[in-house]
Design brief:
The protein has 66 residues and is an all-alpha fold. The protein has one helix and no strands. The protein starts with a helix and ends with a helix.
């Protein structure tokens, strides 16, 4: 195998690595966005749960006063 052939082969492998790297970078970005969405949903749900707990405690206190 000549030096020119080896260089071409290495260039092709490098190109393939670049393509794979770009693919994985896009995949990582999508996963980070999905994580951010789940964190936001968790936060909203946790706030609703906390509010419902407070309302329930208030209702229990009101009922005990009857």
């Amino acid at each position: 195998m000549s030096d020119a052939d080896r260089i071409k082969e290495l260039e092709e492998k490098l190109r393939q690595l670049d393509v794979k790297t770009e693919h994985f970078e896009r995949q990582a970005q999508r996963l980070e966005q999905e994580r951010d969405q789940w964190e936001k949903k968790y936060k909203e749900t946790h706030e609703k749960y906390t509010k419902a707990q407070a309302e329930l405690a208030e209702l229990e206190a009101t009922m005990q006063g009857l």
